[in-house]
Structures are given as structure tokens and as C-alpha cells.
Amino acid sequence: MSDVPLIEFKNVCKYFGQVVALEDVSFKVMAGGVACCLLGDNGAGKSTLIKTLSGVHKPTSGLILIDGKPVEFNSPRDAIDYGIATVYQDLALVPLMSIARNFFMGREPGKQILGVSMYDAAFANKVALEQLNTFGINVPDANQAVGTLSGGQRQCLAIARAVYFGAKILILDEPTAALGVKQSSNVLKMILRVRNRGVGIIFVTHNVQHATLVGDAFSVLNHGRTLGFYEHDEITSEELYNKMAGGKEMASLESDLSTLKAQIAAEPEQANA
Amino acid sequence: MNEEASSESATKSRLREVSLLSRLLNRPELGSVAGTVLVFAIFLVVAGDSGMFSIDGAFSWIKLASYLGIIAIGACLLMIAGEFDLSVGSMIGFAGMLIAIPAKYWGWPVWSSILFAFTGSMAIGYMIGYTVVKTRLPSFIVSLAFLFILRGLTIGLAITLANRTIIGGIGINGGLAEGDWLASIFGFVIGGPNGLYAVVVWFIILAVIASFVLLRTKFGNWIFASGGDANAARNVGVPVDRVKIMLFMFTAFCATLYATCEMMEYGSASADRGNLKEFEAIIAAVIGGALLTGGYGSVIGACFGALIFAVVQVGINFSGIDNSWYRVVLGLLLLSAVVFNNFIRRRVTGS
How far apart are CA A66 and CA A81, in angstroms? Predict the structure, then answer.
């Protein structure tokens, strides 16, 4: 294992006019299959961070290093060329199209015949099913529409597609946010399987429990700033929780809620009306 | 681990039980094939001995289906890509004038005015497509504007340049197009005046090519992706705008093909040709399983949709029922097709 990080952010700032979206964000993902979790509440700057990672936004200041060398992304294309793949929450899947057609959408397999690029359906079906199977997802038919898959299966399909097309660093935007317990656990298993292949994972989430289940390192984002960088055994979930919410805010919420409860108890007739 | 495996096999077996029916239902053509069988059955009973199913009778509805099929194929691909083109009917009239005026009044050889018409109408198709993708306005409105612009232009130009709205004497028998190599490709007839017209051959060729492109090429996958979810398609690198513009040009091509074949058959161009054909094309595509919301449909289905149309139209004539009932039947067919398609979409998307 080398000690040069696969990707590193050094004091990255991003301003939109007067709005400070990211301030002094620093974190790193080590090479050799490490899952780094970026935790943050709504509005903490997760989306801006993802877009900066995937080349949609350019940082106002600060450095992005890949394999120790500073890089500059002028477009999402540049990030993709460095092997950075992003699975956004909308997954970029078309529900009406088949699994195989979605898997190869925009990158259809097949040769050119008389100047026409063919679509090799047999190959696409075979590879799509194989890839899903290696990650433990069993679907009977690659011609099945993606709309018939569960949310977790769709997430896994999008991840498998990114890995198949050569992702070295995989950014997952809230992959478990809209899922139930069982489907979330399938997605988390998938994340571990991908990590074991040596892919660096940036798991962006607000779910501390899911983060601690698969994460090797953690960074908490609050009001656009990173609050430290921790290895797995350096921090507990409670501490992560408190950092994410901000200890003070949590305490004030507790007192607010108890005041409200007392008020409701004092005015029962209004609550019934 | 065990739990996961057992639940997966449960899902699997559940899918297996319904697999035959579900596979049939997942074919977008199903509705239109069933509809074709139904209208054939009805007219075999009602008009079976009227000559509708004699060779002459059959050629008449096959020809009608071919004309409509040509524009239905264009409409179908465009609808799968998530857009509409309401200018098809006006484009038919316009393309006819683009052939007739240069051939008759400017002394162009007919082949060159046919090429001129294809170039001109496809340029307008490009313009419609470009306007739609750049403004992000619904294509329904943009092409509705062109429905009026093109119809007005056709009548206006015909009156200004030729001082009439019907230009005759261009036919392949004794008209200007006689002996013209290109015109004869669009105007030949096999087996006498009630025989097999060129339009039928063109329709079959177009159907085979379009269906092949849709199902077996990269571009076909892009058509489904553009209509299924344009944003998702863009995010994985599908050139959605280019796909849509090319399909608007293709509908213009289909309209011009329609116009050329019709003109060679009738020997004339008329400014009111193609009136309301855009709706018939869209209806045929919808009966053929295309969803109004895009992303789903079939070229073969649209061809069967066109066949249903033609059989109903000719069948009502042959069985001596008043012609106005034809529209009632079509309206009902359309309504049942949309309801059925909606059901299919919910099945496929699992919602």
C-alpha cells in the first residue's frame, strides 16, 4: 500500500458570489480500496462538494490532488477521464428501458457496419447480467425494464455500471437515502464488494449508521466546512452525530421540543379541535 | 445471507409464473396486432362478400395503409424520442408544391425538383427540431406553429408563383414526369391501375429500416433514452438534442416521400394535400403502442396501426355503412389504445 492518497482535497473553497458554499474543505481517500464517508446534514454543502469532485464546479481556491499530483477539472468529462465516476441520486437510469439497454446507455457495444454503429443486444444482455451477478444481484432477464426493479436494485445497477466502465474513484450521492432497511443493507453490501475490488469510494450521506457500517474514514461537513478527518477507530457514532448536527443545535432542539410538548399538554382542547 | 437467497428465489419464481403472459404484454406491438385481428374479423363478417378481400379490394387498403404507414413510422420514432410533429400534414402539401412549381414553371427536370423538395423539407424539419431543442418549448406548440406556417406558405406560394392551388400534368403517364428516372422510382405500378403501387414497396423498405435502426443500432438506443428520460440520457453522454433534430428531419423526409408518391399517382400537386394527416399518423403510432410521454413504442406496431386505419376506412366503404361512422370508429380505437397503453406503461415501470 502506498501512502499517496488516490484523491485529496486541500483547503478547497467554493464561493457563489457572496454565498460561501465550501470553506477550507480537506479530506483524502487512500489507494487500495478505502471507503471514505462524507457526512453532512441538509444544506451542509454536500451537493456542492460532489459537483466539485465530479468537475461540474471549479473550486474558487484550494487544490485537488490525484495520485499526489494537482489536477484541474474544466468539465465533468475531465473528471471522468481521471476515473472519477459519480452516481447521482437520480441514478441516470431510464425506467422504461431494459436493464441491458440502461447498462450500456451512451456506451453501446457493437461494431460499425457500413458506417452504422450497431447495438449488440446479445453481448449487452450477457455482460449486464454477469456484472450484476458478480455483485450478488440476481435478476432473471436483462430485457426486464428497469422500472420493475426495486430502488436498491436500481442503485446497485447504477453502481455496477460505473464500476464496469472503469471507475477508480466512485462518488455515491446519498445511495441509501430513499431506501428501506432491507434494500439499504443490499446497497451497503454492494459498496463493500466494490471497495474490495480496490475502488476508492466517497460515500456521501447523512446517515451515520450506514456510514459507520462500511466506512474506513470519516469526514463531517457542517456549514460548508470539514470538521476533522477520522479513521474508523478514532471516532464513535455518537461523536459523529454530534459533529454533524452541531452539539449546541441538538441541545437547543431538545429544549424546544420539551417546551412545545408542555404547551400542547397545557392546551388539550386546542389540540383536539 | 440465507434470507437474502431465499427472498431472491421467491422473486424469481414469482416472475417465472407470469413470464409468458408478461412477455407478451411487454411487447408494445401487442395491442395493434390484436386490434388488426379484430377489425379483420369484423369486416370479414360485415363485408366478407363485398369484394373488399378480393385482390383489387385488398390492394386498395394495402395502398392506403402504406401511405399512412410511411408518415406513421416517422411520427412513431419521433414520439419514442419524446416529441411530436404536427406539421407533417402541411409538410405533405408543401413538399408537393416544391416539386410541382420548379418542374412546371421553372423548367427543372422532375428528378431535380424531387431532390429539391427532399432537401427543402428536411431543412425545415431541421429548423423545427432546432427550435424545439434550443427553446425547450413543447414540440406540440412549435410544430403547431409550423402546421399553419407551412400550409399558409403552400397556398400563398402556389397562388403567387402559379396563380392556382392545383398544379396538374406532372404524372408519370403523359405528364412531365414521364420517362424521368427518379420519378418512376416513386410512381411505378405493378399489374395495372389497380395493382401494386410504388408506395407499398417504399413503405415496406422504410418499415424494415426504421425498425432495424430502432432495435439493433446505437442510434436506436439513443432514441429510447432521449424519450425515456432526456436528463438521464444526457448525463451518460447521449447527444439528445442531435437525436431529436435528426428525427424531426426524418418526419419531414417521410412527409416528402408521401407527397412524392401521391403526386406521381395523381399526376398533380394540390395546396390542400395532407390535411389532418399529422393526426392520423400520431393516432396510428399510438394504436401501435407508442406512449404519448415518450420512451416506448414500436415501428412494427405503428405499421399495424396504419393497417387498422386503412381496413376500417375501406371496410366501411365496402360494407355500405355511412362514411361518417369511420371517424367514430377511429376515435373509439384511439381511446381504447390510449387506455391500454397507459395500463402497459404502469406495468412496465412497476408504478
Answer: 12
